[in-house]
TrEMBL record:
<dbReference type="InterPro" id="IPR053185">
    <property type="entry name" value="SET_domain_protein"/>
</dbReference>
<dbReference type="InterPro" id="IPR046341">
    <property type="entry name" value="SET_dom_sf"/>
</dbReference>
<dbReference type="Pfam" id="PF00856">
    <property type="entry name" value="SET"/>
</dbReference>
<feature type="domain" description="SET">
    <location>
        <begin position="9"/>
        <end position="120"/>
    </location>
</feature>
<protein>
    <recommendedName>
        <fullName>SET domain-containing protein</fullName>
    </recommendedName>
</protein>
<dbReference type="InterPro" id="IPR001214">
    <property type="entry name" value="SET_dom"/>
</dbReference>
Length: 277
């Protein structure tokens, strides 16, 4: 699912503008929307408060990164209707290039199954997650994890989520410090722990990282295998923003060129021995 924002509001504007000025500008923005979109905005679920557009934006707008420095709150009408689940079956990402929000499957979604995304960072622990959903989104999560009374299961889940969050950072950090072997071992753990918790890494991104690490430890065969998996995974997304796909394609191309070079070199060595016979 690909959708463009009905409204996109800079976070710096939302934070810095005086309330009456912000409300006036947002209202003017909504009034300028095409009729159907404008009606869609007013039909959204709203919080109970004192100003209607604030009450609509608070539980519906989603934070997106427009440039490296500039974040914004985007209001996407279709996306607003997708419910939360702590073990979601879909993920979303925003393309700063096209301003499109794309929802894509996180795992196989069965026909008739409701599409869900997580409104919280995946690594957030149980108590914080419930509190965040209550405060920011104004509801109690009814998923099996949140309703569980099994303290041990909740604590295990929290540990796994925390570990998943740590591992991604550790893999990238170890890689940047050139501890490639360590990074590869941690990448494997990242996948295993994430899968056990039902929140695995985004595979396209994961394969890409493992491909580059395999190359760094000198395993060209694995580097090519994972680069191909990354390319296939990005292709399957049918992305509206081809930056990741293009990067994966270019990396695979580079490895293939290099692969031929390495093969030639080996042949060279073999020929050398032949000459000596
Ligand atoms: Zn939940």
């Amino acid at each position: 699912m690909v959708e463009y924002p009905a409204l996109l509001l800079g976070v710096s504007f939302l934070q810095d503008a005086k309330a009456h000025h912000r409300r006036r500008l947002v209202k003017r923005g909504v009034e300028q929307l095409p009729g159907e979109t404008r009606r869609g905005v007013y039909e959204l679920h709203r919080k109970k408060g004192d100003y209607v557009l604030d009450d609509i934006l608070a539980p519906n707008a989603v934070s997106v990164q427009v440039t490296e420095e500039e974040a914004a709150m985007g209001l996407f009408l279709e996306f607003s209707r997708i419910n939360h689940d702590c073990q979601p079956n879909a993920l979303y990402r925003f393309s700063p290039k096209t301003l499109a929000l794309e929802v894509f499957p996180y795992r196989t979604i069965q026909p008739g199954e409701e599409i869900t995304v997580s409104y919280t960072p995946i690594s957030m622990p149980h108590n914080q997650r419930r509190e965040y959903l209550r405060q920011v989104w104004g509801f109690d999560c009814s998923c099996s994890l949140c309703h569980s009374t099994d303290e041990a299961a909740i604590s295990d889940s929290d540990h796994r989520r925390e570990r998943v969050g740590e591992l991604k950072q550790s893999v990238l950090q170890a890689s940047s410090q050139q501890y490639f072997e360590n990074a590869l071992v941690m990448a494997q753990e990242w996948l295993e722990v994430g899968e056990r918790e039902g929140v695995p890494p985004l595979l396209a991104e994961y394969y890409d990282i493992v491909a580059r690490l395999s190359f760094d430890v000198g395993d060209l065969q694995d580097a090519r295998r994972y680069a191909l998996l990354a390319f296939d995974a990005w292709t399957k997304f049918g992305s509206v923003d081809d930056t990741d796909l293009e990067a994966a394609r270019e990396y695979l191309r580079e490895l293939n060129r290099l692969g031929r070079g390495v093969k030639l070199e080996r042949q060279g060595v073999a020929n050398m021995f032949k000459d000596a016979e």
